[in-house]
Amino acid sequence: MTQKPAHRNLPQLLGEARRWFEEGLLAAMEAAGAAPVSPTQVQLFAVLDDEGTTVSELARRMGVTRQTAHQAVHGLVGAGLLQQVPDPASARQRLIRRTPEGEHAHREAGAVLERLEALLAERIGTAATDALRAALEAPWGPPGEPDKP
User: Fold this and answer.
1) Are 42 and 22 in contact, with CB atoms under 8 Å apart?
2) What residue segments make up the domains of the chain, in order of their start?
3) DSSP assignment string, 52-118
4) 41 pLDDT tier (thresholds 50, 70, 90)
5) Residue 82 region, left (φ>0) first, then alpha (ψ -120 to 50), else beta?
6) Which residues, in sequence order, are bridge partners of residue 82?
7) CATH 1.10.10.10 matches 36-129
8) Exposed/middle/buried for 36, CB within 10 Å: 0-12, 13-18, 19+?
9) pLDDT at 13 over 80
């Protein structure tokens, strides 16, 4: 007797979808000979401003501790993909920016993600992919406590 799969909630499904894109991106970048990076480092690249971002702001955007963000930055600086520069707005802060090699990797990753999105559209249909994008781009408002029964 085949068991029906357990009902998965939206956060689980969104997490699986994110991992699908991350795994595809990491595999494509590795196949292209790019320096290996972790999913946390991929996420850091995604939230980094072109003009540079502080480690504290990166941690906030990623939803991780400052220490986790700092470790990811350190690894990417060591790989030659990021650099630390003085923040012109604060003598105490440093901005994290992409190096020229990091810019190249960022552009390559963007192209891979576009190809993955096209692959997803082939698999689930363009209408479903467009609807997914529209739902995720719609303003959800602040999270609130659902009504209690």
Assistant:
1) yes
2) 36-129
3) -B-HHHHHHHHTS-HHHHHHHHHHHHHTTSEEEEEETTEEEEEEEEE-HHHHHHHHHHHHHHHHHHH
4) confident
5) beta
6) 98
7) yes
8) exposed
9) yes
Q: Which two tokens stand for residue 68?
A: 């986790």
Token match 């504290």: residue? 56
Distance separating alpha carbons of residues 81 and 106, to the nearest angstrom: 9
143: left (phi over 0), alpha (psi -120 to 50) or beta: beta
Segment 19-24 mean pLDDT: 93
Pairing state between β 82-87 and 90-98? antiparallel
CA–CA separation, 115 and 120 (whole Å): 9
CA–CA gap between residue 49 and residue 106 (Å, rounded): 12
Q: Which amino acid is at 148?
A: K
